[in-house]
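Changelog-adjacent note: as of this version, every example in the card shows the full chain rather than a window. The one below runs 263 residues end to end.
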Amino acid sequence: MSRIGRFFAGVLVTAALGLTFGLAGGSAALAADVTVFAAASLKNALEDIRKEFEAETDYTVALSLAGSSLLARQIALGAPADIYLPASADWMDYLEAAGRLVPGSRKDLLGNRLVLIAPQSVAQSISGFDDPRLFEQLGEGKLAMGLLDAVPAGIYGQEALQSLGLWSRLAPQVAQTDNVRAALALIAAAEAPLGIVYASDARADPRVVVLAEFPEGSHDPIRYPLAQILPADGPAVAAFHTYLQGRVAREIFLSAGFDVIAE
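Full-length structure tokens:
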């Protein structure tokens, strides 16, 4: 069974979840011209892009930011999303198989890198993942990372630790969070000594420092696919979908630490 299948098997999905979908607020999302469901790691960049788009047009945009898996389940249940931008191709594949995407609207927009972080106040520099100081820094504390069967950053993180031969030693100390920004918050507040997040997340909070970047080949490529969700009514949706691929958005994404891979 796939990770998505295991996740659905282990979670009770209710109609109420679909009705209380938006972190941006249900009424606010319904009042906006465009509702975007996006991975929590995109928070800072998308807020900046929304401001620029709204300043240049007469349209309004509502952002619902959470774990990619949660958002995909909400869309599958009928939550009124217009655009979906997750941190995983798997959840986009799920919605595409369910017939929820506007044909021809999907493309890989962004890439990212995976990093090990620590609170700035207590961080000890390490020379790599084989440095004994990594385990000294962790001590008896927790390694914060996204849900291993649902949150893309958690899935990538587990793959990387397994590839490096560290998973069996670190697994008992993993603290799973609902999304990658929740893991970042634990480290920023020094409530956990180590965490695994995206490079863009680490850049977003000055209270954390990057100890090491995971080798590119230690996990699957990190991709953020973009697509419109049916019925995607009105010109505002198409306009923002295009804007996310344009020059202004590209500069904001790059400044936030993402790799822009869409041409």
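Structural remarks: Residues 1-25 have pLDDT under 50 and may be disordered.
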